[in-house]
């Protein structure tokens, strides 16, 4: 039985009308949340800075637009509203509440890498993992890692000292150095393996971690590659797969 083209067109129009109605209703519910001017359906996508550093600066700039309490603003990724919170007190109230632990769609992009861990999980799965991990943050256990903290911090200080000498005291951004130091500490304390990220920045594992982080961050701010099909064929799907294979291989070596 053939379906008339007119029926298909009518069904498509009805479907789009329902989506548009839901979007308009959602916008009306959030009308009191401060937000820069946005476009229907497109949101703020048309003005997003292409590079991650520029995008972060853009979000921080939005915080200056609404300094009054509560310090928050709404950013629209297409039809998806995202609440940006700039108040430490508000963030604390959210993080200290174990009832609201459902994660947003952006966390799903971490699942191929991190699986259903504490960062991405919800519900009873999250509570079970939280219960298992909580004892590991006891101060007596953390004290046993002080030597690791000091050793990696010493490497970081030496690198900063060298960089200051080369740049005559002017350093634009120390975030990459802090990230490598953090990676060294996390791997050595949680997995018992040293990756020497600070001293071997060209290792495949370090490059894979940095690469997959950049890919996920860029994907999160680009609605065109949110669907998996578009991401794999038109986005950075191949680079993502390369990074994922290296990271999974390293994890298997640690476990087995």
Automatic annotation (TrEMBL):
Positions of transmembrane segments: 6-24
Family matches, as Pfam families: p450 (PF00067)
GO molecular function: heme binding; iron ion binding; monooxygenase activity; oxidoreductase activity, acting on paired donors, with incorporation or reduction of molecular oxygen
Alphabetical UniProt keywords: Heme, Iron, Membrane, Metal-binding, Monooxygenase, Oxidoreductase, Transmembrane, Transmembrane helix
SUPFAM superfamilies referenced in this protein's UniProt entry, alphabetically: Cytochrome P450
Cofactor list: heme
Family membership noted in the UniProt record: Belongs to the cytochrome P450 family.
Name of the protein described by the UniProt record: Cytochrome P450
Organism per entry: Meloidogyne incognita
């Amino acid at each position: 039985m053939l379906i008339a083209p007119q029926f298909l067109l009518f069904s498509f129009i009805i479907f789009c009308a329902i989506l548009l109605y839901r979007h308009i209703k959602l916008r009306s519910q959030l009308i009191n949340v401060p937000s820069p001017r946005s476009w229907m359906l497109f949101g703020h996508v048309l003005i997003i800075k292409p590079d991650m550093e520029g995008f972060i600066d853009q979000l921080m700039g939005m915080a200056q637009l609404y300094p009054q309490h509560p310090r928050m603003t709404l950013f629209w990724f297409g039809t998806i509203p995202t609440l940006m919170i700039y108040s430490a007190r508000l963030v604390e109230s959210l993080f200290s509440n174990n009832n609201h632990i459902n994660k947003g769609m952006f966390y799903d992009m971490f699942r191929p890498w991190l699986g259903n861990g504490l960062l991405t999980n919800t519900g009873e799965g999250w509570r079970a993992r939280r219960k298992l991990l909580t004892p590991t943050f006891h101060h007596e256990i953390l004290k046993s890692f002080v030597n690791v903290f000091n050793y990696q911090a010493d490497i970081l200080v030496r690198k900063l000292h060298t960089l200051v000498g080369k740049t005559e005291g002017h350093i634009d951004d120390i975030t990459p150095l802090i990230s490598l130091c953090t990676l060294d500490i996390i791997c050595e304390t949680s997995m018992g393996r040293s990756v020497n990220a600070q001293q071997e920045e060209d290792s495949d594992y370090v490059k894979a971690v940095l690469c997959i982080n950049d890919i996920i961050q860029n994907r999160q701010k680009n609605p065109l590659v949110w669907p998996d099909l578009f991401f794999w064929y038109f986005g950075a799907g191949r680079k993502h797969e390369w990074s994922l294979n290296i990271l999974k291989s390293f994890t298997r070596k640690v476990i087995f």
